[in-house]
Specification:
Elements lengths: L2 H8 L4 H7 L2 H8 L1 H10 L1 H4 L4 H17 L9 H13 L8 H27 L2 H28 L13
């Protein structure tokens, strides 16, 4: 199972959405969503089940975010190159990605996934330290993954990922 391709399908990412998501405003506002989601879940301590409203708002924002901003005016920003590199990585079955990038990307994804365990535990029991530890692992792994995608983009410069049409 390719969790990367599954996520892309769930987010309904087509060429237009990817082009818009390369905008640094899209990337950096997306980075802020995990801490906001943590805060939204944490509000259950204060507002009970009403916490589902801010949780839903963050989840909706995660889905619409790649479509909110115009394609970037400049394509050389770190955020844009991370997005382009991620597209190259997602197309790794159609176009070979250097093995050293593939291995590290999978390792960093595992680091992010490992952060989910203490994060969920910390949120379940409303304990600050496991929540923060999980958040740091999840976000640190993802940001390092994005940085690796910049490197991948630089190594594969000039190669475009194959076009993908949205699933019907």
């Amino acid at each position: 199972m390719d969790v990367f391709a599954l996520t892309e399908r769930l987010m309904r990412m087509d060429d237009a959405a990817w082009a818009r998501h390369a905008n640094p405003l899209s990337v950096w506002s997306r980075v802020a969503t995990l801490p906001l989601l943590v805060l939204a879940f944490w509000t259950r301590a204060w507002i009970g089940w009403w916490c589902l409203l801010p949780v839903a708002a963050v989840v909706i924002f995660v889905f619409v975010n790649p479509r909110l901003f115009a394609p970037p005016a400049r394509q050389d920003s770190w955020a844009a190159r991370a997005t382009y590199g991620e597209r190259l990585f997602l197309a790794r079955r159609e176009r070979a990605v250097p093995p050293h990038h593939r291995r590290v990307a999978l390792l960093l994804t595992s680091v992010s996934a490992a952060g989910v365990v203490p994060l969920v535990y910390g949120l379940a029991v409303l304990q600050v330290w496991p929540t923060l530890f999980g958040l740091v692992l999840a976000m640190g792994g993802k940001l390092w993954f994005c940085d690796r995608m910049v490197w991948l983009h630089e190594d594969m410069r000039g190669e475009n990922p194959p076009r993908r049409e949205p699933a019907a």
